[in-house]
Amino acid sequence: MGTVHARSLDPLPMQGPELGLQADDMDLGEPEHEEKQEVLENKDVVVQHVHIGGLGRTKEDILTYEIADVFRAKNLIDVMKKSHEARQRLLRLGIFRNVEVVIDTAEGADALPNGLDVTFEVKELRRMTGSYNTMVGNNEGSMVLGLKLPNVFGRAEKLTFQFSYGTKETSYGLSFFKPQPGHFERNFSINLYKVTGQFPWSSLRETDRGVSTEFSFPIWRTNHTLKWEGVWRELGCLARTSSFAVREESGHSLKSSLSHTMVIDTRNSTILPRKGALLKINQVCLNQLLSLFHLLIFLVLQVLSTSLWGGMLLPLGDKPSSIADRFYLGGPTSVRGFSMYSIGPQSEGDYLGGEVYWAGGLHLYTPLPFRPGRGSFGELFRTHFFLNAGNLCNLNYGEGPRAHLSKLAECIRWSYGAGIVLRLGNIARLELNYCIPMGVRSGDRICDGVQFGAGIRFL
Amino acid sequence: MSVVHVMSLSTAAAEPWPEKATLYQPLKEDQILLSDSASSLAVQTFLRMCGLPVQVSCCANAEYMSPSGKVPFIHVGNQVVSELGPIVQFIKAKGHSLSDGLDDVQRAEMKAYMELVNNMLLTAELYIQWCDDYTATEISRPRYSSPYSWPLNHILAYQKQWEVQRKMNAIGWSGKSLEQVYEDVSQCCQALSQRLGTQPYFFNKQPTELDALVFGHLFTILTTQLTNDELAEKVKSYTNLLSFCHRIEHTYFKEHDRESQSGSPQSIVDIP
C-alpha cells in the first residue's frame, strides 16, 4: 500500500486497521491534537523519506551509509534517537559546519498516515580555509601558514598543508586523508613532511624529510593502524660543546620503517578523563633491523588514575641503535621531579637515551580546596597527588632476560608530590607541581621543588 | 728540537698529549676523495714530524662530525680540532712546534707558500674532482656516496657537487678550462720547486708545517688514480719535488709499520 521512496532499505511493516483509524482521525481538528498525543506515545511510525538538503560538492553515495539507520526506526522515540545518531555521524565526517534535523509528517501523493519525513539540513564547510600565525619562541620568530581543503573531491577527502618559515628553521607538511565511504573508521592518509627539532638535553639537532602512508581500520573494539615511513634523517650537534658521543652520531641516514599500532580507548576525554582506559601497543620494524615495542596503559576511575608505559629496542643486527630512535625519560610530562629527558645514560651532560625503559604513575584527583568558582571556572582545575617511578637503561642483549629484569629493577627513579592541573579545553593540560625526586643516580638532572608542565600526554 | 713555549691559549694546553688521540677521515678504500686524502695526509705527516702518535679512524660520516665541516679533524682529550691551520695552532699551544727556529721573515714566507698551496693546489684538486663532468661522474660522485643507500646517495652526491661548483663560482674559477687548471698546477709546482732548490726541506735542515702540507698534496696526487695521468705528470716533471716526497716518505712513513701509513700503499718508485 503506497509507494516507498527509493532510499528505503528494509520492507516496511504495514498495519491495516490502524491506518484506517488514523486516516479518519486526521481530518478533524481537535482529534488531531489527540492524534498527536497518540503519536508521541510510542505509536508505530514508518520513515518514508530522508532528505539531505544543502549539498554542494559532497557526493550523495557516502552519505547514504550514514543515514541508512534512520529507516530502521519503528517508533517516534526511535526516529529521534536514530536521527541524532545520524547527525553525529554526518558531523564526524568533518565536511559539514553544522547539521540540523527536522522530523515532520510525510507529505506528497504517496504519504502514509503514519509516515514521517526526516530532513537533514547541512551546511558544507568552505572549499578552502587558510590560517596565518606568527610565533615567537626562544630567540626565534617564525611565520606559519596553514591551508586546509576539506572534502576535496566530494567524499570527505581532506588535504592539509602547513608551512613554517622561521629565522632558524623551515618546515612544512602536506597531508592527504581519505576515508572509505560508509566506513569512516577505515581510512588511509599520505603525508609528506620536513620537520626540524632541537633537543637541548642531548645537544642534538635533527632534520627529518620524509614520506609516510598509513592505513587505519577497526577490528571489533580495537583500532589498528599500519604505517610505512621513509625518512631522510640528518643529525647534527646543537653547539660546539656537544659531547663526542653525540658528535659521532652526526650525519645523514635513511630510515625505512613499518609500524603497527593497536589502540583501545574507552576514556571519555583525552585530556583529564574521568573514566575509561587506554591501551596502546606499537611495534616498529626499521630497516636496520631494529624492532621496537612501545606500550601505554592508562586507567582512570573517577578520582584515581594509573598509567604504565614501557618500551624496548631490540637490535636484530650488528648496528647499534641511533640516538634519535632511543627512548628518553624524565620531565614534567614523564617522571616528574626530573629535568626534561634527563634520566639515564649520558655523556658530558648530554643524555643519550636508552634502549629499554618503563615508567608508572599513580594519581589521586580532588577538586580545588574550598571549591572556588564552583560550577564554572573552578571545574577546569583539579588538585592531584602523584607518585611516579621509572627506569631507563641500555641492555646487553647477550645476557638473558633475567639479567635484564634485574637491571631494570635496580636503580629505580621515583618521585612524589602534589599540584594543580588545568584542563585547556580538549587541547592541552597544564600542571604546576611540587615534586620530591628520589632514587636519583649520578648523572640525572633533577628539578625538585616547583615544576611546570604543559602537554597532551602525561604519565 | 722543539722549544717549549708556555702559551695558554686554552686550559687544555696544560694537558699532555694523550695516548688515545685520534684522527678522523672518510673511509679509505671506498669513500675518500683526492682533496680530503691530501689534507689528511698533510696532518698525519705534521703529527709524525712533531713525534706525536695518533690513531687514524675512518668513518663514513667524518665530514659531518667535523665542527667546521672539513676533514680531517683530531680528537684529543675532549677537544676537537679540524683542518691543518687550527691543528698547528692547537699543537703549538701544547708546546710542540716545528717553526720556532724560523725568524719573522721566514715565517711570513712559510705562511705565503702555505697559502699558495691552499689556493692553487687544493682548489685545483677540488675543481678536477667536482667541476670536470667526466671525473665527477666516474669517480667523485660514486665514491662520495658509497656508504649510503638509494636514493640518499644521489641526493648527497649532487648536493656536494653543487656546493663545490658554487664555491668555484665565488672565487672565479668556474670560467677556467681544465687545461688552464693544469697550467696553474704546473706554475704552483714550479714556484715550490724553485723555493726548494737542492735543500732537503723548504727551510733547510728542519721540516716545517709547509713541508707536511706540500708532501700531503704532492704524494697524494702522485699516488691517486684519476681518469687520466695529466695531474701526476705535471708534478713528476719537477725532479726535486719527486725526491722531496721520496725523502719524507722514507723518513717518516717507512720507519713505522705498514699499517700506520695512510695514503696509497704504492710507493713512488712503483709508478711507471
Structure overview:
The complex is a heterodimer of chains A (459) and B (272). Chain A has helices at 16-25, 30-40, 60-67, 76-92, 244-247, 401-409, and strands spanning 46-53, 96-105, 115-124, 129-137, 140-150, 158-166, 170-180, 183-199, 204-219, 222-237, 251-265, 275-286, 290-301, 304-315, 346-347, 350-351, 356-366, 381-393, 413-424, 428-438, 449-455. With 459 residues, chain A is mostly beta strands. In chain A, 24% of the residues are buried. In chain B, helix 1 packs across helix 8 (209-223). Chain B has a four-stranded mixed beta sheet with strand order 2-1-3-4, with helices on one face. Mean pLDDT of chain B is 85; it is low at 1-9 and 259-272. Chain B has helices at 34-50, 62-65, 84-93, 104-130, 133-144, 152-171, 178-196, 209-223, 230-236, 239-253, and strands spanning 22-25, 55-58, 73-76, 79-82. Chain B contains ten helices and four strands. In chain B, 54% of the residues lie in helices and 6% in strands. Chain B is mainly alpha-helical. The radius of gyration of chain B is 18 Å and the shape is globular. Classes of the chains: A mainly beta (459), B mainly alpha (272). Chains A and B meet through strand 10 and strand 11 of A and helix 2 and helix 6 of B.
Please describe the topology of this protein.
The complex is a heterodimer of chains A (459) and B (272).
Chain A: H1 16-25, H2 30-40, E1 46-53, H3 60-67, H4 76-92, E2 96-105, E3 115-124, E4 129-137, E5 140-150, E6 158-166, E7 170-180, E8 183-199, E9 204-219, E10 222-237, H5 244-247, E11 251-265, E12 275-286, E13 290-301, E14 304-315, E15 346-347, E16 350-351, E17 356-366, E18 381-393, H6 401-409, E19 413-424, E20 428-438, E21 449-455
Parallel strand pairs in A: 1-3
Antiparallel strand pairs in A: 2-3, 4-5, 5-6, 6-7, 7-8, 8-9, 9-10, 10-11, 11-12, 12-13, 13-14, 14-17, 15-16, 17-18, 18-19, 19-20, 20-21
Chain B: E1 22-25, H1 34-50, E2 55-58, H2 62-65, E3 73-76, E4 79-82, H3 84-93, H4 104-130, H5 133-144, H6 152-171, H7 178-196, H8 209-223, H9 230-236, H10 239-253
Parallel strand pairs in B: 1-2
Antiparallel strand pairs in B: 1-3, 3-4
